[in-house]
Design goal:
Elements: H1 6-16, E1 20-25, H2 35-41, E2 48-51, H3 60-71, E3 76-78, E4 92-98, H4 104-118, E5 124-132, H5 140-145, H6 155-167, E6 172-176, H7 187-196, E7 201-204, H8 210-219, E8 223-226, H9 228-232
Parallel strand pairs: 1-2, 1-8, 2-3, 3-4, 4-5, 5-6, 6-7, 7-8
Helix pairs in contact: 6-7, 7-8
Bound molecules: SN-glycerol-1-phosphate.
């Protein structure tokens, strides 16, 4: 457990216009022995490390968090696909609700299962509205949750979902095109959502180039999540 207030630092960055960059590491696809070199190789702009995957076996998440703690002081934030990925040594947890889909297991089922685990952990829990948007191919999130991504043509629904998340008490909204998406969430969607929100906006999925990164920031993303770009490069 950490005594840092991760949410407050994200919200402060958001209100002062500082842009945040989270690098996502999937413990299932990562060699622990590479930790030190990997962390050294990240761009200086990296502000957070997100840790999670669609399905991670055994205690790989806990092992990865413990190993990373040896080499970095950056906040380690859990971004879990399910309750098996909760581990006490992280700095915070994105408590995700997949509000774009109608699968109760990912709207509230996993969250209820998490409670008895979280009671033992004292993790900082950040309620997050998670919205899956079409990125040109079926994502692991869609496959595992059995829900469909929202078309980028359905802009008003994306805006309304994001606002509904805020009005329901979520502290963050995450627009997700899916890891390895062929194309990211369109800038005009990001700016329309941002215009409606009073809480920080995270955008991820399919962002690989500096141009895509700055387009998403310029449109209003407070934090961008990149995973695949750092897996292959
Ligand atoms: C996935 O949004 C993240 O949950 C990151 O996506 O791997 O495409 O960068 P990429």
């Amino acid at each position: 457990m950490s005594d840092r207030n991760i949410y407050k630092s994200i919200a402060n960055a958001c209100s002062s216009g500082k842009k945040l960059l989270a690098v996502l590491i999937d413990p299932e696809k990562f060699e622990l022995a590479d930790s030190a070199a990997f962390l050294r190789s990240l761009p200086a702009e990296t502000t957070h490390l997100f840790i999670g995957g669609s399905s991670v076996k055994d205690n790989k998440t806990g092992e990865l968090v413990a190993e990373f703690k040896l080499y970095t002081a950056k906040p380690l934030v859990l971004f879990p696909g399910d309750v098996n990925q909760l581990t006490p040594n992280a700095d915070a947890l994105l408590f995700l609700s997949l509000i774009s889909g109608n699968n109760p297991e990912y709207l509230i089922g996993q969250q209820v299962k998490a409670v008895s685990i979280l009671r033992t952990m004292k993790l900082e829990v950040i309620p997050t509205g998670y919205i899956l948007i079409d990125g040109g191919k079926e994502s692991a999130v869609a496959r595992i949750s059995g829900t469909s991504a929202i078309s980028q043509e359905d802009k008003q629904r994306i805006i309304d979902l994001a606002k509904a998340a805020e009005l329901s008490g979520k502290r963050l909204v995450y627009l997700e095109a899916g890891s390895g998406a062929l194309y990211p969430v369109r800038p005009d969607i990001i700016s329309a959502v941002k215009n409606e929100l009073n809480i920080p906006l995270i955008v991820g999925g399919g962002i690989r180039t500096k141009e895509q990164l700055s387009a998403a920031y310029h449109a209003g993303a407070d934090m961008i999540v990149m995973g695949t770009a750092f897996e292959t490069n």
